[in-house]
Amino acid sequence: MVSVQAARQAWRRLEPVHGMIYFVPEASERFAALGLTARMSGYFASRAAPFGRASAELVIATFYNFAPALVRQVIPAAWEITTPEEVLAARLEAADAALRRAKLHEHPDLTETATLARHAAEAACDHLHGRPLFAAHAALPWPDDPLLVLWHAQTLLREFRGDGHVGLLLSEGITPPEALVLHAATGEVPVRFLKASRSWPERDWLTAEDRLRSRGLLGEGLTLTAEGTALRERIESHTDLLALPAYEALGEGGCDRLAKLAREFGRGVVDAGLLRLPSA
User: At a CB cut-off of 8 Å and minimum separation 6, what does 167 contact?
Assistant: First the structure.
């Protein structure tokens, strides 16, 4: 039996290896070469590409917290410019180039880390039900290079966890704007970034604040009440539990080993500046 804490550490420490793809210039340059120059088009097209020619409605449903109007600005128009196959190839090339810029391909523990992460990701593939975005990514072929195996494995683990998280938000009656407000209230991510990147109209943001206050979850200003903090903790805890089947395949020792190795890879991404927010 694997502890939730060990599984969460393994995911969180390795997450920068996947998450950097949304910020690095290697990705935006390759998407621009395909003609995807509109704001956010590369992000929506690349993450949705495993679905094929995904509709705006499918992206809105599975990505969850982005304003529908923002999604419709670029989807399905992206598929009139390029194809999902070309976008996926560009994304993989960008991941390879960025991670090599961070010199992760030179790490002596790369093969072991990639093998452990892949084992967890493949175990997650036995639990497709109710996880549409993960399932679409799980159908993609595995790369051969250990560096890209590591990136793809963490991509799967991220989407596996994310689909479970969305299900919990729905079960708690938390709308997309409310989820953003709750996240902003933790202070973990700047409010300005959440508003700009998700593009909900200000009236929707304010309505979300009012609804959360009426439920006793948000206090004055942008602060969580005790009830709001408890809700956030409950959702995160249950998200951890839903993600556990992937890591149980490693056993406690394997999960601890992955968490230990993942720390250096995550730090390598951060130290190389691959997670810097784009300038306005």
Answer: 130, 242
**Residue in the block written with tokens 């595995």:** 142
Q: Tell me which residues of the chain have a pLDDT lower than 70.
A: 277-280
> In sequence order, which residues have a C-beta less than 8 Å from that of residue 136 and are 6 or more positions away?
50, 51
Query: Around 134, how many Cα atoms within 13 Å sit in the side-chain half-sphere?
Result: 27
Q: Which helix (H) or strand (E) holds 46?
A: helix 41-48
pLDDT tens column, 26-36: 999 999 999 99
* Nearest one of 109, 111, 136, 115 to 125, comparing CA atoms: 136
Helices (H) then strands (E): counts for the chain: 15, 0
Segments making up each domain of the chain, as ranges? 4-271
What whole-number distance in Å separates Cα of residue 237 and Cα of residue 4? 8
Give the single-character DSSP code of 14.
H
The predicted pLDDT at position 276 comes to: 78
Q: How far apart are CA 123 and CA 249, in angstroms?
A: 6
Tokens 């951890």 sit on residue: 240
CA nearest 208: which of 188, 244, 226, 183?
Answer: 183
